[in-house]
């Protein structure tokens, strides 16, 4: 059984929101698209750090002209390209501007997994719903699996124990399984009976 990690494309309206992206979006599950206004001559060092860390998985698109909705139109074009090229991915549009909401609603009606967030921290893999373990637990579990490489737990039992032991006090089984469920939903791993298969690079 082969698992493909689903991409999470994050399109950020940097003219509208300048989030701290280097730490939050460093994980390999995220591909980041930063849209910068034509008159926007300064960016945070945090953005430069992200581009350095992620290489080709982080792209900065600077507008060549300014005007009403120019940035929205550019984001819509790239969003359409991503829907066509990577239809199984999760698409996150980060902006405080609701101008694209009708388009996003149309894409959801077509079965696409697309959502607008007012903050990077609201993306589910970063900030799960109230029924999912907190952000730091999910981030620590992801970091653990990435760092283990080829030595990741091969069985569900071992994976449960390993994730639980990352925390003090240890997580109960319900919390661990909820955490594993979120990772599985995003293609980080898949459970095949008692075995675990990973979509992460070794």
Which descriptors apply to this entry?
202 residues, alpha/beta, elongated, 5-stranded parallel β-sheet, 35% helix
The count of helical stretches stands at 6
Mean pLDDT: 84
Q: Care to count the β-strands?
A: 7
Computed over alpha carbons, the radius of gyration is 18 Å
Terminal Cα separation, in Å? 16 Å
Helix content: 25-40%
Strand coverage percent: 15-25%
* Approximate shape: elongated
Structural class: alpha/beta
Largest sheet: 5 strands, parallel
Description:
With 202 residues, the chain is of the alpha/beta class. It has six helices and seven strands, in the order E-E-H-E-H-E-H-E-H-H-H-E-E. The strands form two sheets. It has a five-stranded parallel sheet. A two-stranded antiparallel ribbon has the order 6-7. It starts with 7 loop residues before the first strand and ends with a strand.
Q: How are the elements arranged and paired?
A:
Elements: E1 8-13, E2 30-36, H1 45-54, E3 58-62, H2 70-85, E4 90-94, H3 101-109, E5 113-117, H4 135-148, H5 156-164, H6 173-185, E6 189-192, E7 195-198
Parallel strand pairs: 1-2, 1-4, 2-3, 4-5
Antiparallel strand pairs: 6-7
